[in-house]
Amino acid sequence: MQKKIRxxxxxxxxxxxxxxxxxxxxxxxxxLYSTGxxxxxxxxxxxxxxxxEKLTSYPSILGGRVKTLHPGVFGGLLARRDVPxxxxxxxxxxxxxIDLVIVDLYPFEETLAQAQSGTFKGSPGEAEKMxxxxxxxxxxxxxxxxxxxxxxxxxxxxxxxxxxxxxLLSDQNGETDHDQRRAFxxxxxxxxxxxxxxxxxxxxxxxxxxxxGGQEQVLRYGxxxxxxxxxxxxxxxxxxxxxxxxxxxNNLVDVDAxxxxxxxxxxxxxxxxGDAVFAIIxxxxxxxxxxxxxxxxxxxxxxxxxxxxxxxxxxxxxxxxDKSTAEAIREIFFEVLIAEDFDADARTVLESxxxxxLLKLKSRQPASRQYKTVLNGVLSQDTDQxxxxxxxxxxxxTTTAAEKEDLVFANIVxxxxxxxxxxxxxxxxxLGKGCGQTSRIDALRQAVEKAxxxxxxLHGAVLASDAFFPxxxxxxxxxxxxxxxxxxxxxxxxxxDSIDYCVQKGLAMVITGLRHxxx
Length: 519
Known about the structure:
519 residues; alpha/beta; Rossmann fold; Cytidine Deaminase, domain 2; 3 domains; six-stranded mixed β-sheet; 18 helices; 25 strands; 37% helix
Protein backbone atom coordinates (compact mmCIF):
# COMPACT_ATOMS: atom_id res chain seq x y z
CA MET A 1 0.00 0.00 0.00
CA GLN A 2 1.32 3.44 -0.98
CA LYS A 3 1.87 5.94 1.84
CA LYS A 4 2.50 9.63 1.39
CA ILE A 5 5.18 11.18 3.60
CA ARG A 6 3.73 14.37 5.11
CA UNK A 7 5.80 14.62 8.30
CA UNK A 8 9.27 13.51 9.34
CA UNK A 9 11.20 13.34 12.61
CA UNK A 10 14.91 13.95 12.01
CA UNK A 11 17.41 13.56 14.88
CA UNK A 12 20.95 12.50 14.02
CA UNK A 13 24.38 12.64 15.63
CA UNK A 14 26.30 12.94 12.35
CA UNK A 15 25.02 15.59 9.93
CA UNK A 16 27.20 14.73 6.91
CA UNK A 17 25.07 13.75 3.93
CA UNK A 18 21.87 15.04 5.57
CA UNK A 19 21.49 18.29 3.60
CA UNK A 20 20.15 16.74 0.33
CA UNK A 21 17.62 14.73 2.34
CA UNK A 22 16.31 17.76 4.22
CA UNK A 23 16.10 19.85 1.04
CA UNK A 24 14.16 17.14 -0.79
CA UNK A 25 11.73 16.76 2.12
CA UNK A 26 11.22 20.53 2.14
CA UNK A 27 10.60 20.52 -1.62
CA UNK A 28 7.90 17.93 -1.08
CA UNK A 29 6.23 20.06 1.61
CA UNK A 30 6.99 17.65 4.44
CA UNK A 31 6.67 19.01 8.00
CA LEU A 32 9.96 18.51 9.82
CA TYR A 33 10.32 17.82 13.55
CA SER A 34 13.76 17.80 15.11
CA THR A 35 15.94 18.09 18.21
CA GLY A 36 18.95 20.09 19.39
CA UNK A 37 21.86 20.17 16.97
CA UNK A 38 19.86 18.67 14.12
CA UNK A 39 17.22 21.37 14.49
CA UNK A 40 19.94 24.04 14.31
CA UNK A 41 21.43 22.36 11.22
CA UNK A 42 18.06 22.39 9.44
CA UNK A 43 17.32 25.98 10.38
CA UNK A 44 20.71 27.11 9.04
CA UNK A 45 19.54 25.79 5.66
CA UNK A 46 16.66 28.30 5.91
CA UNK A 47 14.20 25.44 6.20
CA UNK A 48 11.43 25.61 8.83
CA UNK A 49 11.56 23.00 11.58
CA UNK A 50 9.29 22.23 14.56
CA UNK A 51 11.17 21.57 17.82
CA UNK A 52 10.30 18.25 19.46
CA GLU A 53 9.58 20.25 22.62
CA LYS A 54 6.36 21.39 20.90
CA LEU A 55 5.24 17.75 20.89
CA THR A 56 6.34 16.91 24.43
CA SER A 57 5.77 20.24 26.21
CA TYR A 58 9.09 19.52 27.95
CA PRO A 59 12.54 20.91 27.25
CA SER A 60 15.55 18.65 26.81
CA ILE A 61 16.51 17.70 30.39
CA LEU A 62 19.18 15.82 32.34
CA GLY A 63 21.98 17.12 30.15
CA GLY A 64 20.27 15.90 26.99
CA ARG A 65 19.60 12.39 28.30
CA VAL A 66 15.84 12.90 27.93
CA LYS A 67 14.51 14.62 24.83
CA THR A 68 12.18 12.33 22.87
CA LEU A 69 11.03 9.75 25.43
CA HIS A 70 7.45 10.98 25.60
CA PRO A 71 3.96 9.88 24.37
CA GLY A 72 3.88 13.01 22.20
CA VAL A 73 6.69 11.48 20.13
CA PHE A 74 6.11 7.74 20.48
CA GLY A 75 2.37 8.08 19.94
CA GLY A 76 3.15 9.56 16.54
CA LEU A 77 5.50 6.65 15.79
CA LEU A 78 3.39 3.74 17.04
CA ALA A 79 -0.15 4.78 16.15
CA ARG A 80 -1.77 2.34 13.73
CA ARG A 81 -3.49 4.33 11.04
CA ASP A 82 -6.08 1.60 10.40
CA VAL A 83 -7.07 1.24 14.08
CA PRO A 84 -9.87 3.75 14.88
CA UNK A 85 -9.15 3.73 18.62
CA UNK A 86 -5.49 4.70 17.98
CA UNK A 87 -6.52 7.58 15.74
CA UNK A 88 -9.15 8.78 18.22
CA UNK A 89 -6.56 8.91 20.98
CA UNK A 90 -4.10 10.72 18.70
CA UNK A 91 -6.71 13.41 18.11
CA UNK A 92 -7.72 13.51 21.79
CA UNK A 93 -4.14 14.17 22.94
CA UNK A 94 -3.20 16.36 19.98
CA UNK A 95 -0.42 14.00 18.78
CA UNK A 96 0.58 14.42 15.11
CA UNK A 97 1.21 11.46 12.83
CA ILE A 98 4.86 10.91 11.87
CA ASP A 99 5.47 9.24 8.51
CA LEU A 100 9.26 9.20 8.33
CA VAL A 101 11.94 8.77 11.00
CA ILE A 102 15.59 9.55 10.32
CA VAL A 103 17.68 8.70 13.37
CA ASP A 104 21.25 7.51 13.88
CA LEU A 105 22.89 6.38 17.12
CA TYR A 106 25.49 7.85 19.44
CA PRO A 107 28.99 6.66 18.42
CA PHE A 108 29.45 4.06 21.16
CA GLU A 109 32.04 1.91 19.35
CA GLU A 110 34.04 4.91 18.15
CA THR A 111 34.09 6.34 21.68
CA LEU A 112 35.10 2.98 23.12
CA ALA A 113 37.99 2.73 20.66
CA GLN A 114 39.07 6.28 21.52
CA ALA A 115 38.95 5.59 25.27
CA GLN A 116 40.96 2.40 24.89
CA SER A 117 43.55 3.89 22.54
CA GLY A 118 47.00 4.93 23.63
CA THR A 119 46.17 8.56 22.80
CA PHE A 120 43.48 8.95 25.48
CA LYS A 121 44.97 10.86 28.40
CA GLY A 122 42.16 10.61 30.94
CA SER A 123 41.83 8.28 33.92
CA PRO A 124 39.99 4.92 33.71
CA GLY A 125 37.05 6.55 35.49
CA GLU A 126 36.91 9.37 32.96
CA ALA A 127 37.15 6.87 30.11
CA GLU A 128 34.23 4.83 31.42
CA LYS A 129 32.11 7.94 31.97
CA MET A 130 32.75 9.00 28.37
CA UNK A 131 31.83 5.51 27.09
CA UNK A 132 28.63 5.24 29.17
CA UNK A 133 27.36 8.60 27.92
CA UNK A 134 27.47 7.24 24.39
CA UNK A 135 24.96 4.50 25.16
CA UNK A 136 21.97 5.79 23.21
CA UNK A 137 18.51 5.32 24.72
CA UNK A 138 16.11 7.47 22.73
CA UNK A 139 17.67 6.67 19.34
CA UNK A 140 17.25 2.87 19.47
CA UNK A 141 13.78 3.31 20.97
CA UNK A 142 12.63 5.56 18.12
CA UNK A 143 14.18 3.28 15.51
CA UNK A 144 12.51 0.20 16.97
CA UNK A 145 9.15 1.95 17.27
CA UNK A 146 9.23 3.20 13.70
CA UNK A 147 10.45 -0.15 12.36
CA UNK A 148 7.74 -2.00 14.28
CA UNK A 149 5.15 0.24 12.65
CA UNK A 150 6.59 -0.13 9.13
CA UNK A 151 3.10 -0.62 7.68
CA UNK A 152 2.65 3.12 8.17
CA UNK A 153 6.16 4.56 8.62
CA UNK A 154 9.47 4.64 6.79
CA UNK A 155 12.58 4.46 9.02
CA UNK A 156 16.15 5.38 8.06
CA UNK A 157 18.77 4.30 10.62
CA UNK A 158 22.07 4.70 8.75
CA UNK A 159 23.58 7.54 6.75
CA UNK A 160 24.45 5.04 3.99
CA UNK A 161 20.72 5.10 3.16
CA UNK A 162 20.44 8.89 2.74
CA UNK A 163 21.24 8.77 -0.97
CA UNK A 164 18.76 5.93 -1.73
CA UNK A 165 16.16 7.81 0.31
CA UNK A 166 16.58 10.99 -1.75
CA UNK A 167 16.20 8.99 -4.97
CA LEU A 168 13.12 7.20 -3.63
CA LEU A 169 11.50 10.48 -2.54
CA SER A 170 12.25 12.12 -5.88
CA ASP A 171 11.22 9.19 -8.08
CA GLN A 172 7.99 8.48 -6.19
CA ASN A 173 7.01 12.03 -5.24
CA GLY A 174 7.30 11.34 -1.52
CA GLU A 175 5.37 8.06 -1.54
CA THR A 176 6.57 4.63 -0.38
CA ASP A 177 5.14 1.16 -0.70
CA HIS A 178 4.86 -1.68 1.82
CA ASP A 179 7.86 -3.66 0.57
CA GLN A 180 10.13 -0.62 0.63
CA ARG A 181 9.13 0.26 4.18
CA ARG A 182 9.60 -3.32 5.30
CA ALA A 183 13.07 -3.53 3.73
CA PHE A 184 14.22 -0.35 5.50
CA UNK A 185 12.72 -1.65 8.76
CA UNK A 186 14.81 -4.82 8.44
CA UNK A 187 17.96 -2.71 8.03
CA UNK A 188 16.97 -0.61 11.05
CA UNK A 189 16.57 -3.63 13.31
CA UNK A 190 20.00 -4.86 12.21
CA UNK A 191 21.57 -1.49 13.09
CA UNK A 192 20.09 -1.64 16.60
CA UNK A 193 21.07 -5.31 17.02
CA UNK A 194 24.72 -4.67 16.16
CA UNK A 195 24.71 -1.64 18.46
CA UNK A 196 23.40 -3.75 21.36
CA UNK A 197 25.98 -6.44 20.64
CA UNK A 198 28.78 -3.87 20.94
CA UNK A 199 27.42 -2.67 24.30
CA UNK A 200 27.01 -6.26 25.52
CA UNK A 201 30.60 -7.02 24.54
CA UNK A 202 31.79 -4.05 26.60
CA UNK A 203 29.92 -5.11 29.75
CA UNK A 204 30.40 -8.88 29.31
CA UNK A 205 33.74 -9.38 27.53
CA UNK A 206 34.05 -13.03 28.60
CA UNK A 207 30.52 -13.95 27.50
CA UNK A 208 30.06 -11.59 24.59
CA UNK A 209 28.75 -12.33 21.16
CA UNK A 210 31.09 -11.51 18.26
CA UNK A 211 31.69 -7.86 17.51
CA UNK A 212 30.96 -7.73 13.79
CA GLY A 213 31.99 -4.11 13.48
CA GLY A 214 28.66 -3.14 11.93
CA GLN A 215 29.70 -4.24 8.44
CA GLU A 216 28.02 -6.77 6.17
CA GLN A 217 29.43 -8.18 2.95
CA VAL A 218 27.25 -10.35 0.74
CA LEU A 219 29.37 -13.15 -0.74
CA ARG A 220 28.94 -14.85 -4.10
CA TYR A 221 27.49 -17.82 -2.20
CA GLY A 222 28.15 -19.96 0.85
CA UNK A 223 30.00 -23.27 1.02
CA UNK A 224 28.02 -24.35 -2.05
CA UNK A 225 26.38 -22.36 -4.87
CA UNK A 226 22.85 -23.01 -3.59
CA UNK A 227 23.67 -21.47 -0.19
CA UNK A 228 23.57 -17.71 0.47
CA UNK A 229 26.72 -16.42 2.18
CA UNK A 230 27.31 -13.23 4.18
CA UNK A 231 30.42 -12.02 6.03
CA UNK A 232 29.95 -9.81 9.09
CA UNK A 233 32.97 -7.92 10.34
CA UNK A 234 35.95 -5.87 9.22
CA UNK A 235 38.57 -7.78 7.24
CA UNK A 236 40.76 -4.69 7.14
CA UNK A 237 41.66 -5.21 10.78
CA UNK A 238 43.51 -8.41 9.84
CA UNK A 239 44.42 -8.33 6.15
CA UNK A 240 44.67 -5.80 3.34
CA UNK A 241 43.56 -7.00 -0.07
CA UNK A 242 46.14 -6.00 -2.68
CA UNK A 243 44.89 -7.82 -5.76
CA UNK A 244 42.41 -10.32 -7.12
CA UNK A 245 38.76 -11.29 -7.11
CA UNK A 246 36.46 -11.06 -4.12
CA UNK A 247 37.04 -13.54 -1.33
CA UNK A 248 34.48 -16.35 -1.21
CA UNK A 249 32.97 -18.05 1.83
CA ASN A 250 35.38 -20.98 1.53
CA ASN A 251 38.32 -18.62 0.93
CA LEU A 252 37.52 -16.81 4.17
CA VAL A 253 37.32 -20.03 6.16
CA ASP A 254 40.72 -21.15 4.84
CA VAL A 255 42.26 -17.69 5.30
CA ASP A 256 41.15 -17.77 8.92
CA ALA A 257 42.79 -21.19 9.40
CA UNK A 258 45.97 -19.97 7.70
CA UNK A 259 46.22 -16.82 9.81
CA UNK A 260 45.67 -18.81 13.01
CA UNK A 261 48.46 -21.20 12.03
CA UNK A 262 51.05 -18.62 10.99
CA UNK A 263 50.39 -16.71 14.18
CA UNK A 264 52.15 -19.54 16.04
CA UNK A 265 55.47 -18.59 14.43
CA UNK A 266 57.46 -15.36 14.97
CA UNK A 267 57.63 -12.89 12.11
CA UNK A 268 60.58 -13.65 9.83
CA UNK A 269 60.66 -9.96 8.92
CA UNK A 270 61.23 -9.02 12.56
CA UNK A 271 63.61 -11.86 13.40
CA UNK A 272 65.56 -13.18 10.41
CA UNK A 273 67.60 -15.39 12.77
CA GLY A 274 64.51 -17.56 13.19
CA ASP A 275 62.72 -19.70 10.62
CA ALA A 276 60.98 -18.58 7.50
CA VAL A 277 57.76 -20.59 7.57
CA PHE A 278 55.53 -21.30 4.60
CA ALA A 279 52.24 -23.21 4.82
CA ILE A 280 49.62 -24.47 2.38
CA ILE A 281 46.02 -24.83 3.58
CA UNK A 282 43.24 -26.91 2.01
CA UNK A 283 39.80 -27.16 3.60
CA UNK A 284 41.21 -25.63 6.82
CA UNK A 285 43.88 -28.35 7.16
CA UNK A 286 47.60 -27.94 6.64
CA UNK A 287 48.67 -30.02 3.65
CA UNK A 288 52.21 -28.63 3.46
CA UNK A 289 54.39 -26.64 5.83
CA UNK A 290 58.10 -26.17 6.38
CA UNK A 291 60.54 -23.97 8.24
CA UNK A 292 63.74 -22.95 6.44
CA UNK A 293 66.35 -20.19 6.29
CA UNK A 294 64.65 -18.31 3.45
CA UNK A 295 61.07 -17.77 2.27
CA UNK A 296 61.75 -19.46 -1.06
CA UNK A 297 63.32 -22.53 0.56
CA UNK A 298 60.37 -22.75 2.96
CA UNK A 299 57.97 -22.58 0.00
CA UNK A 300 59.78 -25.32 -1.90
CA UNK A 301 59.85 -27.63 1.13
CA UNK A 302 56.18 -26.96 1.98
CA UNK A 303 55.11 -27.68 -1.60
CA UNK A 304 57.19 -30.88 -1.72
CA UNK A 305 55.29 -32.18 1.29
CA UNK A 306 52.15 -32.69 -0.79
CA UNK A 307 52.25 -31.08 -4.26
CA UNK A 308 49.05 -32.85 -5.21
CA UNK A 309 46.90 -31.31 -2.46
CA UNK A 310 48.49 -27.88 -2.88
CA UNK A 311 46.52 -27.29 -6.10
CA UNK A 312 43.94 -24.56 -5.45
CA UNK A 313 45.10 -23.97 -1.90
CA UNK A 314 45.50 -20.96 0.36
CA UNK A 315 49.18 -20.08 0.90
CA UNK A 316 50.68 -18.14 3.78
CA UNK A 317 54.14 -17.21 5.05
CA UNK A 318 55.60 -15.25 7.94
CA UNK A 319 57.75 -12.90 5.86
CA UNK A 320 57.96 -10.92 2.63
CA UNK A 321 57.49 -12.45 -0.82
CA ASP A 322 60.38 -11.55 -3.12
CA LYS A 323 60.51 -11.87 -6.90
CA SER A 324 62.33 -15.20 -6.90
CA THR A 325 59.75 -16.76 -4.58
CA ALA A 326 56.91 -15.23 -6.56
CA GLU A 327 58.20 -16.78 -9.77
CA ALA A 328 58.32 -20.18 -8.08
CA ILE A 329 54.82 -19.83 -6.61
CA ARG A 330 53.16 -18.75 -9.85
CA GLU A 331 53.93 -22.15 -11.37
CA ILE A 332 50.99 -23.66 -9.49
CA PHE A 333 47.33 -22.67 -9.30
CA PHE A 334 46.38 -21.19 -5.94
CA GLU A 335 43.40 -19.24 -4.64
CA VAL A 336 44.94 -16.92 -2.06
CA LEU A 337 48.46 -15.90 -1.05
CA ILE A 338 48.95 -14.18 2.33
CA ALA A 339 52.24 -12.62 3.40
CA GLU A 340 53.50 -9.94 5.73
CA ASP A 341 54.53 -7.98 2.66
CA PHE A 342 55.29 -8.24 -1.07
CA ASP A 343 58.22 -6.69 -2.93
CA ALA A 344 57.07 -4.51 -5.83
CA ASP A 345 58.55 -6.81 -8.49
CA ALA A 346 56.99 -9.83 -6.75
CA ARG A 347 53.59 -8.21 -7.08
CA THR A 348 54.20 -7.60 -10.77
CA VAL A 349 54.86 -11.33 -11.23
CA LEU A 350 51.88 -12.48 -9.17
CA GLU A 351 49.36 -9.96 -10.48
CA SER A 352 49.73 -11.26 -14.02
CA UNK A 353 46.54 -13.25 -13.37
CA UNK A 354 43.64 -11.03 -12.39
CA UNK A 355 41.85 -13.54 -10.15
CA UNK A 356 44.79 -14.38 -7.87
CA UNK A 357 44.04 -12.98 -4.44
CA LEU A 358 46.97 -11.34 -2.65
CA LEU A 359 46.52 -10.38 1.00
CA LYS A 360 48.92 -8.44 3.19
CA LEU A 361 48.80 -9.68 6.79
CA LYS A 362 48.24 -6.74 9.13
CA SER A 363 47.56 -8.48 12.45
CA ARG A 364 48.94 -11.69 13.91
CA GLN A 365 46.94 -11.31 17.13
CA PRO A 366 44.27 -14.02 17.40
CA ALA A 367 40.76 -13.21 18.58
CA SER A 368 40.28 -13.92 22.27
CA ARG A 369 37.16 -16.02 21.69
CA GLN A 370 35.79 -18.38 19.06
CA TYR A 371 32.17 -18.97 18.05
CA LYS A 372 30.24 -21.74 16.34
CA THR A 373 26.53 -22.09 15.63
CA VAL A 374 24.90 -25.33 16.77
CA LEU A 375 21.24 -26.35 16.87
CA ASN A 376 19.38 -23.09 17.59
CA GLY A 377 22.21 -21.40 19.46
CA VAL A 378 25.84 -20.42 19.59
CA LEU A 379 28.82 -22.05 21.29
CA SER A 380 31.58 -19.79 22.55
CA GLN A 381 35.00 -20.68 23.90
CA ASP A 382 38.40 -19.17 24.58
CA THR A 383 40.80 -19.37 21.65
CA ASP A 384 43.19 -22.34 21.96
CA GLN A 385 46.37 -20.51 22.88
CA UNK A 386 49.65 -22.12 23.87
CA UNK A 387 51.12 -25.44 22.81
CA UNK A 388 52.12 -27.22 26.00
CA UNK A 389 51.98 -26.67 29.74
CA UNK A 390 54.87 -29.02 30.47
CA UNK A 391 57.70 -30.78 28.65
CA UNK A 392 57.83 -34.14 30.34
CA UNK A 393 60.34 -36.62 28.89
CA UNK A 394 58.84 -40.05 29.59
CA UNK A 395 60.38 -42.36 26.96
CA UNK A 396 63.37 -44.65 26.87
CA UNK A 397 65.73 -41.68 26.32
CA THR A 398 65.62 -37.89 26.18
CA THR A 399 65.05 -36.11 22.91
CA THR A 400 67.98 -34.90 20.85
CA ALA A 401 68.23 -31.18 20.01
CA ALA A 402 67.07 -31.88 16.44
CA GLU A 403 64.16 -34.03 17.62
CA LYS A 404 63.08 -31.36 20.08
CA GLU A 405 62.93 -28.73 17.32
CA ASP A 406 60.90 -31.08 15.16
CA LEU A 407 58.59 -32.04 18.02
CA VAL A 408 57.79 -28.40 18.78
CA PHE A 409 57.13 -27.79 15.08
CA ALA A 410 55.01 -30.95 14.71
CA ASN A 411 52.97 -30.13 17.81
CA ILE A 412 52.01 -26.74 16.33
CA VAL A 413 51.08 -28.30 12.99
CA UNK A 414 49.00 -31.01 14.67
CA UNK A 415 47.15 -28.39 16.71
CA UNK A 416 45.86 -26.91 13.43
CA UNK A 417 44.63 -30.18 11.90
CA UNK A 418 41.10 -31.48 12.33
CA UNK A 419 40.79 -34.21 14.95
CA UNK A 420 41.67 -37.01 15.15
CA UNK A 421 45.02 -35.66 14.00
CA UNK A 422 48.57 -36.95 13.50
CA UNK A 423 51.51 -34.97 12.05
CA UNK A 424 54.80 -36.54 10.89
CA UNK A 425 57.72 -34.10 10.71
CA UNK A 426 61.40 -34.31 9.85
CA UNK A 427 63.80 -31.36 9.55
CA UNK A 428 60.88 -29.00 10.18
CA UNK A 429 58.99 -30.24 7.15
CA UNK A 430 55.56 -31.91 7.22
CA LEU A 431 56.02 -35.32 5.57
CA GLY A 432 52.61 -36.79 6.22
CA LYS A 433 49.44 -36.01 8.12
CA GLY A 434 46.22 -37.70 9.07
CA CYS A 435 43.22 -35.55 9.97
CA GLY A 436 39.50 -35.74 10.55
CA GLN A 437 39.61 -39.49 11.19
CA THR A 438 37.29 -41.34 13.54
CA SER A 439 40.16 -43.22 15.19
CA ARG A 440 43.71 -42.19 16.01
CA ILE A 441 45.23 -45.29 14.45
CA ASP A 442 43.42 -44.48 11.18
CA ALA A 443 44.84 -40.95 11.30
CA LEU A 444 48.34 -42.43 11.67
CA ARG A 445 47.81 -44.92 8.84
CA GLN A 446 46.69 -42.02 6.65
CA ALA A 447 49.79 -40.00 7.60
CA VAL A 448 52.19 -42.86 6.89
CA GLU A 449 50.48 -43.58 3.57
CA LYS A 450 50.66 -39.91 2.57
CA ALA A 451 54.39 -39.79 3.36
CA UNK A 452 54.92 -42.93 1.30
CA UNK A 453 52.98 -41.47 -1.61
CA UNK A 454 55.72 -38.87 -2.08
CA UNK A 455 58.61 -41.23 -1.27
CA UNK A 456 59.59 -39.65 2.06
CA UNK A 457 61.88 -41.60 4.36
CA LEU A 458 60.33 -41.52 7.85
CA HIS A 459 63.41 -42.90 9.62
CA GLY A 460 64.36 -40.28 12.18
CA ALA A 461 61.05 -38.42 11.84
CA VAL A 462 58.89 -37.38 14.80
CA LEU A 463 55.17 -37.80 15.42
CA ALA A 464 52.70 -35.42 17.08
CA SER A 465 49.21 -36.35 18.23
CA ASP A 466 46.50 -33.86 19.16
CA ALA A 467 45.26 -36.08 22.00
CA PHE A 468 46.49 -39.00 24.09
CA PHE A 469 47.16 -42.54 22.87
CA PRO A 470 44.54 -44.83 24.43
CA UNK A 471 46.60 -47.88 23.36
CA UNK A 472 50.19 -48.52 22.33
CA UNK A 473 49.19 -49.34 18.73
CA UNK A 474 50.09 -45.85 17.42
CA UNK A 475 53.61 -45.80 18.87
CA UNK A 476 54.18 -49.34 17.61
CA UNK A 477 53.01 -48.51 14.06
CA UNK A 478 54.97 -45.25 14.15
CA UNK A 479 58.12 -47.04 15.27
CA UNK A 480 57.75 -49.63 12.51
CA UNK A 481 57.52 -46.75 10.00
CA UNK A 482 60.76 -45.22 11.30
CA UNK A 483 59.53 -42.68 13.89
CA UNK A 484 62.02 -42.08 16.71
CA UNK A 485 60.24 -39.50 18.92
CA UNK A 486 56.64 -38.79 19.90
CA UNK A 487 54.80 -35.83 21.42
CA UNK A 488 51.31 -36.09 22.90
CA UNK A 489 49.30 -34.46 25.72
CA UNK A 490 48.93 -37.56 27.88
CA UNK A 491 45.95 -38.08 30.16
CA UNK A 492 44.83 -41.58 29.24
CA UNK A 493 44.39 -44.18 31.97
CA UNK A 494 46.60 -46.33 29.70
CA UNK A 495 49.39 -43.79 29.13
CA UNK A 496 51.76 -46.35 30.61
CA ASP A 497 51.22 -48.74 27.67
CA SER A 498 52.69 -46.27 25.17
CA ILE A 499 55.38 -45.10 27.57
CA ASP A 500 56.48 -48.65 28.30
CA TYR A 501 56.77 -49.40 24.57
CA CYS A 502 59.00 -46.33 24.10
CA VAL A 503 61.14 -47.35 27.08
CA GLN A 504 61.58 -50.87 25.75
CA LYS A 505 62.48 -49.66 22.23
CA GLY A 506 64.65 -46.71 23.25
CA LEU A 507 62.28 -44.15 21.71
CA ALA A 508 61.76 -40.60 22.97
CA MET A 509 58.34 -39.49 24.17
CA VAL A 510 57.25 -36.06 25.42
CA ILE A 511 54.01 -35.42 27.31
CA THR A 512 52.75 -31.82 27.09
CA GLY A 513 49.71 -31.80 29.36
CA LEU A 514 47.71 -29.79 26.77
CA ARG A 515 45.20 -31.40 24.41
CA HIS A 516 44.33 -29.78 21.05
CA UNK A 517 41.04 -31.23 19.80
CA UNK A 518 39.78 -29.37 16.74
CA UNK A 519 36.27 -30.27 15.58
